[in-house]
Structure prediction request, 315 residues.
Amino acid sequence: MGEMDQKLGLVKLSERSYGYMQKDEGLGWSNAGVIVGADEAILIDTLFDLPLTRKMLDEIARRVGKPIKRLVNTHHNGDHFWGNQLVTGAEIIGHRLFRSEMIKMPPEMTQIIRSLPSDIPAAEMLKKAMAPFDFSGIKLTPPTLVFDHQLTLYLDDREVELIHVGPAHTSTDVIVFFPEEKVLYAGDIIFRLCTPIGWEGTYDNWIAALNRILKLRPEKIVPGHGPLCGIEGVVEMREYFMYVHSEAKRCFEREMTMTEAAKSIDPGPYANWTEPERIVSNVARAYREFRGEPYDAPVDPIELANLMAEIRQVR
Prediction:
């Protein structure tokens, strides 16, 4: 996509579509988007804290100049909705499970992470990741309109398609497609040049979600994290998952532990993606599937983070 994929802030993608892009600096640095009509705008996602969201809304107000009357959240992770309270007066739209899922990781959890004792291997890594953000004053502000599978919004007389594709990255994953201008907002179904990490879901579902995007034939995609892309970003994500799943299966069949597998798998062509240590999460997911466990089987995030910290030091 040329120079456009390096731009930050509010980036115009087409006549009515924008991406709000943040530099991928690890955990929490997400993207958002705006679709503009004659008298209103639809916002796709807010950001991890109130100062970042306020900065985004100020730029949208200055450059777009239309009131945001609807806000779509692509899923319930904090870096995609903790700024919702600042979009006053907007109807907030998300998947039906959003409200129950969002309370599992409230903003208060960030204080627990910041207070982790230094003898926990992941403590320094997580504290460093959280340091740029100001989590004060956040009030969880959930959707006021929810749906199960698919919902069509109208902006003037133009369709905006909301499609639930989870559980993939999370149980509440929604992609937003603006067919008229072939622009798609992928949420965390796509991490561009960034190692993906998933919470609730399966490999099959995530790959199916990527295939669903390919069938829509978008020309421009705003990923949840990383620079703008076209369908090449979808294809590369799919290939990554197929590679890690295959390598994890080989390790599982050799009766290697999940830890041994995560340490031994060569990241190959994906070694230059940011956060390569997140392979831990993807191997852990594969092992849960190989053992026949449910997609939402509980995991110990600190245990996984400790292993990620160890791999980060080595690589």
The chain is about 35% helix and 20% strand. The mean pLDDT is 94. Residues 2-314 form a domain with the Metallo-beta-lactamase; Chain A fold (CATH 3.60.15.10). The chain has one domain: 2-314.
